Structures are given as C-alpha cells and as structure tokens.
Prior knowledge:
5-stranded mixed sheet; 171 residues
Amino acid sequence: MSGVRPGTAASRGGTGSRGGTGPRGATGARGGARAGGEERALTSVAAGDRFRGEEPAHTPRLWHVTLSVSGARAPLPEVRRALEQLAHDHPFLLTSRYADDHAEIRYWEEARDLHDAAAVALRLWGEHRQTAGLPPWEIVGLEVIDRATYHQRIAAGYGPAPATPVGVHPF
C-alpha cells in the first residue's frame, strides 16, 4: 500500500487482523464499505500551520502576575539583595517593591491557562527561597489576570503606571 504507513490500515479499519471491519463492526474508514484495493487518502499539515478561527486551547497566553508575601521583619538591605538576586535569576520579573516585613513581585507569565500561571506563581517564592536568599515569608496574595484585562485596567487608570520603573524598589 503506497501512501500509508505499515500497520496503519490494519489499526484503523483497513484490511488486517479485523478482516476489513473497523471498531464496533463498522467497515471502511467512515463506516461504509470500501471497494477492493481502495486506499484511504492521507493528508498532512505543514509545520507552523495554524487552526482557522479560534486558537487551540493549548496555545500559551500571557498572564500578568502580582505575588504578595509577608512575614517577620528582615533587614532591608538583605530583602533588597534577595529580590535583586531573584530578578537576576529570573529576568522575567518586572518590578519588585519591598519593605522590612512584606514584598510584592509583578511579572508576566506565559501559560496555557490561569490555573497553570497561578500554580507557577505559587511555587516561585518557595522554590527560590534558598537560592536567592529570600526571607522565610508566606504568600499572602496572588492576582493573575490576562493581558487584555491588564491593558483595560491601565487604560482606566488602575494598576501601576506604565512608566513604573522596572527593577527592585522600596515601597
């Protein structure tokens, strides 16, 4: 059979171990009888082709994340150094603001959906506590919004000003 991978016809209702019947007793590729020697046409999709209409559900989107942490007082220079180290280790961080007992981190996350973006955000502080020397604070707030909502808020005058400097700053 030309144009068909070996074993494909047998596993999808062609001739083979089922004697020409497909699943649940159907014959042929769509339940109709196929003429003897007729081959099923295969189609291919070129690399990079997209679905028409809506994007597939698994396409990553951008999410704006604000993570708030708080805990016992820590020396300001140590908090600043730890946040700078975190920003160096993960350059996706946009802005970090801090005080001696709390901090806020803002960044963009690329994820399939809100659940994935939130899961990554909730792991961020704990997973990098040792490597960046972050204070042993707990997560006390999390906001994850899609790109369109972020831009609507900025246009309406809510949220950080677009000119907010990137980096680590005191409150």
